[in-house]
């Protein structure tokens, strides 16, 4: 029977294993395990790759969001508008600084923040908006930027799943302050948790570098209480090995997405891509009312697929009592979505076999 995993982390790392081990050995040799030279080198290379002035490496995508809100003085009594169709870290980070997440519904065609709903959600307590480039698909940023300017709000982009995605020829994370994850399942992946922040504000970057290191200005002086959220030197070294391969991996992801798009659109509802966007495709999502039956059928044929995410954030126990009036599109979507494998390690014949299985099932269940 066919066996096609959703992701194969061993395969990617195995191909780069000799160079990864050399990079780790260099760190072991110089012994600068905290804020070592590889961290600064990675920050500089990412800044050039993404077209931003400053990159600040941090310990995770969640830390990126949390530190940015601390740096922007967002805290108790403040509200941050975002979406409930995302990984829970988007809203968790708001709570971690003492602020309140306010959820708006999604555009049902894109699954992303609906800009038309934002104005009605703004209150005197609103301090920031967090659009989420979910699955590596960029949000429509022009109207979101304009709204932030008009109301004096901070724009924080949740780019956790979108390293390499562009919109209007610009990298995501360059429209506001960008918060990225380098978790092992991302388009650029560490061998553990890691993340980074993008900004064109040098003062903000300097503050973020203090905040990621418990508020230290130097070894002996602490300016503000903060957390330990540094990017590990070993992870930075590994990421420097992987970064040159990012474009090649994005091409493979986009090739898979194009094949799915062409073959499956007549049979399944697919995500509408924002105009002028070049997604990174950390996921490729299809939709069907008989989602669970389809997943079971694919599993019986050896195809591993996932759901990102079956429970909206406002439906999680941790967020009981959170104000989330009227999210019908979010609640409907999470019951219908299926993520297909789209990683660079996926072989085209396996992808095509999955496409055939999906089309056959669709015709049999029409």
3D structure, described in words:
The protein is an alpha/beta fold and 366 residues long. The chain folds into 2 domains: 9-244, Aspartate Aminotransferase, domain 2 (3-Layer(aba) Sandwich), CATH 3.40.640; 245-364, Aspartate Aminotransferase, domain 1 (Alpha-Beta Complex). It contains 13 helices and 13 strands. It has helices at residues 9-15, 17-30, 37-50, 61-71, 89-96, 118-121, 141-151, 202-211, 233-242, 246-264, 291-300, 328-333, 348-364, and strands at residues 54-58, 79-83, 100-104, 126-129, 154-158, 166-167, 170-171, 177-181, 195-199, 269-270, 277-278, 284-287, 337-340. The chain has a 7-stranded mixed beta sheet with strand order 1-9-8-5-4-2-3, sandwiched between helices. A 3-stranded antiparallel beta sheet has the order 7-6-11, with no helix packed on it. Strands 10-12-13 form a 3-stranded antiparallel beta sheet, covered by helices on one side. β2, α5 and β3 (100-104) form a beta-alpha-beta unit. α3 (37-50) packs across α9 and α10 (246-264) packs parallel to α13. The two termini are 25 Å apart. The model has no long low-confidence stretch (mean pLDDT 97).
